[in-house]
Specification:
Length: about 280
């Protein structure tokens, strides 16, 4: 009986030691990848190579790459940052001659930390700031305009994925993920106006529904840069295309556009130019 008890105690001690070692290994992995200094490249490499990857790192990675505030996924015309760092100055010149200037600030990991959207007279319309959480990554923190400051709080599911960003003005962004943790749908509910539903495939918006309006997004893969670029947005009425916006780019050696000409139904609508400070 004593021998059986001793064997059982040794087995229990061995199991406890194994659990402790596994926990320590998980902590080392989290300390390596769940930090503000991590790059998307190293995270992606970990996700590709680890046979049984740490679930916290997976949630962290998913929250970064699926967060629409991450560099190249802000809005229709703000594509193509491609993980740049430093500051980006953007000027939009409409066909009628009016202008507006925007500023985007990125950290050393290529993630957006601040943006400023300005009006045609050079006055700031809205400033956005983003926050970093060592467990979940980057998230929209605040938007500030002349008349209002809105603060945002992220909400997470049981697996640690960000499922909602809620503004204290009643606005919200609700995320839906597939079984791989990839974003497949984003519903944006503003405090005023129509709700927007964005459908994603492989990290890119492919369809948008706003009120009764339906838009389809079309991309082209550039073999020289290994990047996808938005080339057309088609507005549908049933299956018929009623309007089409097209994009024609000048691309630099880092795969970022320095100029894009935008046309609506074949007629010039605007030109966007960018200058990059930093990599």
């Amino acid at each position: 009986m004593k021998r059986i008890l001793l064997v059982a105690l040794v087995a229990i001690a061995s199991a406890v030691t194994g659990i402790a070692q596994e926990h320590a290994a998980d902590q080392r992995v989290e300390a390596t990848y769940c930090t503000a200094d991590v790059t998307l490249e190293s995270l992606a490499a970990y996700m590709d190579s680890a046979r049984n990857y740490n679930p916290m790192v997976r949630a962290f990675y998913s929250n970064l790459v699926n967060n629409p505030t991450h560099s190249y996924r802000i809005e229709h015309l703000d594509l193509g940052f491609n993980g740049c760092t430093g500051r980006v100055d953007e000027q939009v010149v409409l066909a009628g001659g009016s202008k507006r200037d925007n500023v985007f600030i990125f950290n050393e990991q290529g993630l957006l930390t601040q943006s400023s959207i300005q009006g045609s007279k050079g006055r700031t319309v809205v400033d956005y700031t983003y926050t970093f959480d060592k467990r979940f990554g980057f998230s929209l923190k605040q938007s500030k305009s002349k008349n209002r400051t809105v603060k945002y709080a992220p909400l997470f599911d049981a697996e640690g994925l960000r499922v909602t960003i809620k503004g204290d003005n009643g606005s919200r962004q609700d995320y839906t993920f597939n079984e791989k943790g990839q974003l497949i749908k984003l519903v944006i509910t503003p405090d005023k106006g129509d709700k927007r539903t964005l459908i994603y495939q492989d990290g890119y918006v492919i369809r948008e529904e706003t009120g009764s309006k339906v838009l389809r997004y079309h991309y082209d893969f550039d073999t020289a840069t290994g990047k996808k670029f938005l080339i057309a947005i088609k507005e549908l009425k049933g299956t018929e295309v009623v309007h089409e916006r097209t994009f024609d780019y000048d691309i630099d050696t880092h795969g970022r556009y320095t100029r894009v000409d935008v046309a609506l139904d074949g007629k010039h609508q605007m030109t966007i130019t960018r200058t990059y400070s930093g990599l």
